[in-house]
Design goal:
Layout (H helix, E strand, L loop, with lengths): L2 H10 L4 H11 L7 H6 L7 H15 L4 H5 L1 E4 L2 E4 L12 H11 L7 E5 L5 H9 L4 E6 L2 H14 L4 E4 L11 E6 L30 H13 E10 L5 H10 L3 E7 L5 E7 L5
Parallel strand pairs: 3-4, 3-6, 4-5, 6-7
Antiparallel strand pairs: 1-2, 7-9, 8-9
Length: 277
C-alpha cells in the first residue's frame, strides 16, 4: 500500500483529510504537520511497521481519542504543549481568555499576583508567563496528574510558575490576587455532547446539573481572594453568559462584561472586584 492509497482509505473510512494526513505522518515517524513531505512522497510504500502503527492510530481515532493525544502535543497561543489524557486538550477558543487577561494586565504592575485555577496542561498560566515573565503566577489543579503534566510543560518551555494542588482557591488559602483566571468545568452532567469527549478527563468537563457548580464556587471564593480592584475572568459554555454574569453581579462585582470566541459567541465573562467596599 502506498501513502496515496492509505490516505484514500482513511478518508473513505470517514477520517477528515487533514487528520488522515496527520495519522499517516505519525505512522511514518514524521512531523505530523509536514503535509508537503507527504504530498511529495505519495507513491512511497508503507512497510509492515508503518502499516501496523497506522492501524493502531486509526483505531484510537475511531474510538474518539483527540488528535492532540495522538500527536502528543497541541499548539496554544504560540506555545507547543505536551498533551495527553492527564488533562483536557487546550482549545483555540481559550486563547480569548488569555488575550483578555493580557489586556487586564496592562493596567497592573509587571509583577502582578495572578492565579490560574484548574490549570490542566498549564496552557493559560504558561501563555501568560510567556508574554509577561515577571508575573507572580500560581497555577493550581485538584488533579495531581494534571499538575504533573503542567510542570512538564513549564520545564520544557523554561517557564517557572508556582504550582499548588487543591480545589480552586482552597489551593492558595488566605492569599490575595490581582487577577484570577479559570477555564473550569462547565458542561451539564446530562449534556449529550459529552459522548464525543469521552476520552478526556470527565472531572475537567462536567459541573453539576446545569454546568455551573464550579463557577458558583469560584465566584464566591474570589470575593475573598481578590485584592481591591482585582479581576476575575472565566471561560464558560456557549449559552451560559447571562447566568455567569448574573452570578458576578449578585456577588458584588463591578464592570461585568464578556468576550466573544472565534465564532462570535460570548464564551468568557469577567468582572472587577470593587476598589473599596
Amino acid at each position: 500500500m502506498t501513502i496515496a492509497e492509505a490516505l484514500r482509505a482513511l478518508v473513505v473510512d470517514g477520517v477528515p483529510r487533514l487528520e488522515a494526513q496527520q495519522l499517516l505522518l505519525l505512522a511514518l515517524g514524521r512531523d505530523p504537520h509536514a503535509r508537503a513531505w507527504l504530498a511529495a512522497h505519495d507513491e512511497l510504500m508503507l512497510d509492515d511497521t508503518a502499516r501496523a502503527h497506522l492501524a493502531a492510530l486509526a483505531r484510537r481515532h475511531r474510538e474518539g481519542e483527540p488528535m492532540a493525544y495522538l500527536r502528543g502535543e497541541q499548539s496554544f497561543h504560540g506555545l507547543t504543549l505536551r498533551a495527553d489524557a492527564r488533562a483536557l486538550v487546550p482549545r483555540p477558543d481559550t486563547e480569548t481568555l488569555v488575550d483578555w487577561a493580557l489586556e487586564v494586565l496592562t493596567d497592573l504592575p509587571p509583577d502582578a499576583r495572578v492565579i490560574d485555577l484548574g490549570t490542566g496542561s498549564g496552557a493559560i498560566a504558561l501563555a501568560l508567563l510567556s508574554v509577561a515573565p515577571d508575573l507572580r503566577m500560581t497555577a493550581t489543579d485538584a488533579s495531581d496528574t494534571a499538575l504533573a503534566l503542567a510542570r512538564e510543560n513549564a520545564e520544557r518551555l523554561g517557564l517557572r510558575p508556582r504550582f499548588a494542588a487543591g480545589p480552586w482557591l482552597a489551593a492558595a488559602p488566605g492569599e490575595r490576587f490581582d487577577l484570577i483566571v479559570s477555564n473550569p468545568p462547565y458542561i451539564a452532567a446530562a449534556d449529550p455532547h459529552l459522548t464525543a469527549l469521552r476520552q478526556e478527563p470527565l472531572s475537567a468537563l462536567v459541573s453539576g446539573a446545569d454546568g455551573l457548580d464550579d463557577i458558583r464556587v469560584i465566584v464566591d471564593q474570589a470575593t475573598r481572594a481578590l485584592a481591591p480592584g482585582g479581576w476575575l475572568l472565566l471561560e464558560h459554555g456557549h449559552d451560559q453568559a447571562d447566568a455567569v454574569q448574573a452570578l458576578l453581579s449578585a456577588a458584588g462585582f463591578e464592570a461585568v462584561s464578556g468576550r466573544t470566541d472565534l465564532a462570535g459567541i460570548v464564551r468568557c465573562s469577567g468582572a472587577r472586584w470593587p476598589s473599596a467596599r
